[in-house]
Amino acid sequence: MSLIPKAELHLHIEGTLEPELAFALAERNGVELPYAGTEALRRAYLFSDLQSFLDLYYGLMVVLRTADDFTELADAYLTRAAAQGVRHAEIFFDPQAHTERGVPIGTVVEGLAHALDRAEERHGVSTRLIMCFLRDRSAESAMETLDAAKPYLHHITGVGLDSAETGHPPSKFREVYAAAESLGLRKVAHAGEEGPPAYVRQALDVLGVERIDHGLRSMEDPELVERLVREQVPLTLCPLSNVRLRAVDTLEEHPLRAMMDAGLLVTVNSDDPAYFGGYVGDTFHAVREALGLNHEQLRELALNSFRAAFLDQDEARRERCLAEVAGYDFDRE
Ligand code: ADE
Ligand code: ZN
């Protein structure tokens, strides 16, 4: 595990639901899970692609019902993240995955916000909340979700786009992103995880996003790479996720290092750590081993995470974190 101070910018809070917590919440809420126990559940974590993961991921969310459940979920993540060197976390959540099951958006946001609001004091972690639209649902559903979130926007920094990518281009969400921008929300989107480089371009040109989540397949399009380098668009890579969801065959073959060498502004993140074999400190360690990254490359990844963070309202914190990374002594690890 690597303890270098870092920001985590690509993390789905529902993807931090560990089997032990899932079973504890199932019991508390009187929900029956279709697995014999935590080990049986873990054995089901063999994915062939993004969709096969999403089916299990959405299925397990039945255990999340009350505001306290969401608070507990976020507290557990923040405790683990802080122990792995995270100083700032920008946390995604999927409101439609809950509202469709009859859990009101206010229950979700207020439950999460309760944990996030005390995270700096309890864990030394500053936080932002990013509401993601499910791209395999309709644009109308996304707009209804944005409307439903209006009473809670003081807790929400930005919007994102996630779920099954293929066949669901960013352009489908042009209007809802325009509406989000007019509400003062920041904009990011998953693109180029399984989808083509054209989806990365659309996310930039049609949605006007400030960061691309994943962006892995950008490497297939040299002109796009040149643009991403020129504009220094941050890419929030998730290498362990890419291996588990079979976007790359092995970690050793992950293009992270080639992307850094090309001059792209890349960051390393955990995506859904309960499912993909590690939190973000574990991920730093794994890429270091698999790709032979040296200390300065790891330092660059950590610096990038703070450069790309939505810390504009707290530049003093960004500067403190950057200075901490610059002075970090790897020999203490
Ligand atoms: N939701 C949770 N994890 C995701 C991922 N890796 N891609 C798209 N949607 C997601
Ligand atoms: Zn993701």
Automatic annotation (TrEMBL):
<feature type="active site" description="Proton donor">
    <location>
        <position position="193"/>
    </location>
</feature>
<protein>
    <recommendedName>
        <fullName>Adenine deaminase</fullName>
        <ecNumber>3.5.4.2</ecNumber>
    </recommendedName>
</protein>
<dbReference type="GO" id="GO:0006146">
    <property type="term" value="P:adenine catabolic process"/>
</dbReference>
<dbReference type="InterPro" id="IPR032466">
    <property type="entry name" value="Metal_Hydrolase"/>
</dbReference>
<feature type="domain" description="Adenosine deaminase">
    <location>
        <begin position="5"/>
        <end position="317"/>
    </location>
</feature>
<keyword id="KW-0546">Nucleotide metabolism</keyword>
<keyword id="KW-0378">Hydrolase</keyword>
<feature type="binding site">
    <location>
        <position position="271"/>
    </location>
    <ligand>
        <name>Zn(2+)</name>
    </ligand>
</feature>
<feature type="binding site">
    <location>
        <position position="12"/>
    </location>
    <ligand>
        <name>Zn(2+)</name>
    </ligand>
</feature>
<dbReference type="GO" id="GO:0043103">
    <property type="term" value="P:hypoxanthine salvage"/>
</dbReference>
<keyword id="KW-0862">Zinc</keyword>
<dbReference type="GO" id="GO:0000034">
    <property type="term" value="F:adenine deaminase activity"/>
</dbReference>
<comment type="similarity">
    <text>Belongs to the metallo-dependent hydrolases superfamily. Adenosine and AMP deaminases family. Adenine deaminase type 2 subfamily.</text>
</comment>
<dbReference type="InterPro" id="IPR028892">
    <property type="entry name" value="ADE"/>
</dbReference>
<dbReference type="Pfam" id="PF00962">
    <property type="entry name" value="A_deaminase"/>
</dbReference>
<feature type="site" description="Important for catalytic activity">
    <location>
        <position position="214"/>
    </location>
</feature>
<keyword id="KW-0479">Metal-binding</keyword>
<dbReference type="GO" id="GO:0005829">
    <property type="term" value="C:cytosol"/>
</dbReference>
<dbReference type="InterPro" id="IPR006330">
    <property type="entry name" value="Ado/ade_deaminase"/>
</dbReference>
<dbReference type="InterPro" id="IPR001365">
    <property type="entry name" value="A_deaminase_dom"/>
</dbReference>
<feature type="binding site">
    <location>
        <position position="272"/>
    </location>
    <ligand>
        <name>substrate</name>
    </ligand>
</feature>
<dbReference type="GO" id="GO:0009117">
    <property type="term" value="P:nucleotide metabolic process"/>
</dbReference>
<dbReference type="GO" id="GO:0008270">
    <property type="term" value="F:zinc ion binding"/>
</dbReference>
<feature type="binding site">
    <location>
        <position position="190"/>
    </location>
    <ligand>
        <name>Zn(2+)</name>
    </ligand>
</feature>
<comment type="function">
    <text>Catalyzes the hydrolytic deamination of adenine to hypoxanthine. Plays an important role in the purine salvage pathway and in nitrogen catabolism.</text>
</comment>
<feature type="binding site">
    <location>
        <position position="10"/>
    </location>
    <ligand>
        <name>Zn(2+)</name>
    </ligand>
</feature>
